[in-house]
Amino acid sequence: MSLRYLSVLLAIACMYGAPAPAPAADDAPKTSEKPKTDEKPKTDEKPKAPAGPMRVLFVGDELSEKGHIGQLVTRMAQAAKEPRRFYSQDIGSAGSTLEKHYKGSTYWNTVADQRWDYVVLQEDAQVILRYRDATVRYARELDRSIRKHRASTVLFSTWAPQDQADGHKNLAKANDEVATAIRAAVLPVGLAWQEAATAAKDIPLYQPDKRYASPQGEYLTACVFYGFFYNKSAESLPADIHKGVKAEEAKALAAIAWKVVQETKNAKPQPPEEKSKAPAKPATK
Which candidate among 57, 141, 208, 255 keeps its CA 20 to 30 Å from the CA of 269? Predict the structure, then answer.
């Protein structure tokens, strides 16, 4: 085989088998890729509007209004800078029962004319202890209308008169039974008072009449409401929330309220049923 023929074969092999030379840096293909930065892409999303106030309607006798519960919880929420303010209205009056509210017109007008998140039902202490079946009946009727208006029912388990042995425990048991019947949650105010009678026995909770709350008793009650609705203790709040309550008293009562709320916290109020129907407004007044 001649040298010329071998040269031709080598040339052909180089043409088909040898890799092409890499392009020079200046000849590298250019791309439109931009360097990465830490900047977040801009969107057209608008910031979320602040949540509206927590709206609570009190339906009971004079205890909630006389005890300034709504006002105190409002101040607590403001002091804590809660995202949701606390707004309440009280339609209770002396001697009112759930039956009277059901058969009257004030309740029906109020629950229908405004939007509520919670409706707090509070039965007269003697009525719920002596006439449990009647309390369940009217609590259930009111609860149906509350659910129809997309709100949740909560029972206010109050404190007992100072001279009634086991009064707090008896009222708590009665309210628990009613709550179970209508699938509602309970505000354990009476149990907080019972705890305070032992854990903070030097703090006066009653007025001289041994029935209504002193400023300290009012503050303890409001701490239970605040702990229940906002799911936190009021221990860190300023001491001047309520006139007549000392700083050390406020802290001790807030701790007691939060302890009881955590220990007795049952399921949150059941969501309204989609097909629930409110009872017809009673014709008798």
Answer: 255
